[in-house]
Specification:
single chain, mainly alpha
Length: 73
Amino acid sequence: QHLITQSEEHLKSERFEISEKLLLADQYRLTALKNHCFAILQPRRYDPIEKLRQWRILKSSPEFANFSDEMKA
């Protein structure tokens, strides 16, 4: 468990794209990493236009095709 936690902390760095982080979180069930990514994608104030823009960027990433159906939902 300690190794998983350390790995998630490393993956939270800005060296990785959100789509890459989400793909790894999805494939390896890294809940803390997934929650971290979703927190970044959520605007501080609800803004449907910004949310749509973020979704389009994520959907156009090469990693998106490899997301599970649950992650895409």
